[in-house]
Amino acid sequence: SFGNYAKFLETPFDTTFFGIPVTLPIHVLVFIDTVFYSALVTVITLILAYPLAYYLAKVASPTALPTLLLLLFIPLWVSEALRAFAWYVILTFNGPLNQLLLSIGVIDQAVRWQQGVLTTYDAIVIVLIYCYVLFMLLPLYSAIQSLDKNQIEAAEDLGSPWWRTHLRVVIPHSKPGIASGCVMVFMLSAGSLLVPTVVGSTRANWFPQTIYTKFNDSLDWQLGAAYSMIFLLLCIFFVILMMRLFRVKLSDIAK
What we know:
The chain is mainly α. The chain is 69% helix and 5% strand. The chain has helices at 2-6, 26-59, 65-73, 80-90, 96-103, 122-145, 149-157, 162-173, 175-190, 194-199, 207-217, 221-246, 250-254; strands at 12-17, 20-25. Strands 1-2 form a two-stranded antiparallel ribbon. The two termini are 38 Å apart.
């Protein structure tokens, strides 16, 4: 019923946005945090994956390409659960990451990564990027690989600097791959339950955790279903937004 959807707007909570104090319903706040940090994961994976995809598609030699792709696929041989628990060990207070940074003098004292250095979601963002960067890389690689290299050479012969060649030639051709990768990474990140549960702190609440709590702990299936529907509508809205932003059709993303 609509009463379950109305509960999404109950339980006001005082917080701050960019230093401005605001009052929002607690579940709306969790929803906004999940959307924001999922979008952040999407942007960072795009920044990391684009140069690597271009290198694999246009720079790497054909003989070395199978080995490079194999090395990239090795993490997928291990389940996401094991990778999440491995990162839990890496990010612990006395874990190998702190020991490495202390030994090379980057930090003066151990950092509680899971409690957050910049935000309370630092550990979740780091692990989500690691888990889903390949879902951004592969559509980008496929899109860039289909670009005729003669177009890049023609742009260079006409005096175009490297950044303009990418801006005017490579990126417009790669728009379907970018849109597809962004949609997949955002939906996987926003819908992740395992990673936030394993590496997140008690102050970092992910919206799928809220849905899981309603179903499993509170046994309130009606409310959990309502929150799931809200999440589904978000995913549909994001797909439409990415299609409009990159001016691609659903058939282009499906490719």
